[in-house]
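Hi R.,

Here's the chain you asked about this morning:
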Amino acid sequence: MLVKMPQLGESVVEGTINRWLKAPGEPVAKYEPLVEVTTDKVNAEVPSPVDGVLKEIIAKDGQTLAVGEVICEIALAEGAGEPEPAEPPPAPQAGAERPAQPALRDDAPAQAALPGAMPRTSPLVRRLAKEAGVDLREVSASAKDGRVTREDLEAYIRAGATRTATPPAPVAAAAVSPPPPAPPRPRPAETRPAPAAAASAEDTVLELTPMRRAIAEHMVRTKATSPHATAWFEVDISGLARLRAKLRPDFERREGVPLTFLPFVIQAAVSGLKRFPILNSSFDQEHQRIILHRAIHIGVAVAIPDGLIVPVVHHADGLSLSGLARRLQDLIERARSGKLTLDDIQGGTFTVNNPGSYGSMLSTPLINQPQAAILSMEKITKRPVVIGDAIAIRAMMNLSMSFDHRVLDGAVANQYLSHVKEALEGLDLDTSVN
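And the predicted structure, written out as tokens:
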């Protein structure tokens, strides 16, 4: 049977083969790990769906494939059957006409495409072709089954082919006079890929790791998808700093985890999402609608050696300060040790970032698709601030929030940030925390 690239997380459209754990000819048991796959969200092991022997590896190490593309073939063990489909096809009705052309399967021999017909390809390639304005009927297919692959499309774009639709087949002249020709429609300006950077003998060329490549493509996609706008607020957290200093020794001794500023900011962010639920939403581009999420699942950006990953604190609105601190510490430790599961990185509805831990004073974060906004907490620093008619030294922090302008406007974004600011500035030594 043919094993295909699974969808390793919502909104994931492709994966990169990192390392095969089995070699051709080796026996595999059902649910035994076959291969390590990297996406822009997580590294995961793909298990074997059946008992058998690994017959052929089709996707090589480092190769990126769309969800649903074949990665290997397994010869079934004696007595083992193909896994049953979730919904078996209905039985044909008596007397029903058979289709003129049978549906193509991944393991079917290549068939010549009808002239002018759209070639077989993956959803990812169709989306990339649409974004680049390329007619896939003009792209030469290299796959043995006649499919147009991502590599075929990229080669076509690199060649600088013009983006013109295939003209329709000529029609025999009719007896009546043809209608007058329609006025020419304006053609969009042609866009070509940027020229490749040249490397000299003194340069060092670093090949992209699978995760770095996935992150790069995801970042380009998010900028192309969402019209970003960013708002900044200045927050006086002097009271919060004193409260944290007071709670910290007993808290860390009792809970066994550090008490940082992050859980306080997440609590304030969650309070704002309850007050302004439009920020806890996603834009459904296919149906042109906004989806408001009832559950509040906070993604937290974590830097790791290969890049950035965003594990999710599920149901953050139901956690106390100590519960948030424990959950955050667990997710951060497992993110940095490569032990996150798929559940850990799925379902986020809003993201909180902490570039301030690296000294950032102001940032313009990129939205974590398909969410509507991302909040960044910047470096906390003491500086002179005018309070009334006096100057005082206060602990100050900037909040940066980028949001999807299709979902909300600046007025709501600023109201949300104002709520978060008030929640954080309202904390002091007399505040009761749970």
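The domain at 2-76 is CATH 2.40.50.100 (OB fold (Dihydrolipoamide Acetyltransferase, E2P)).

Let me know if you need anything else.
M.
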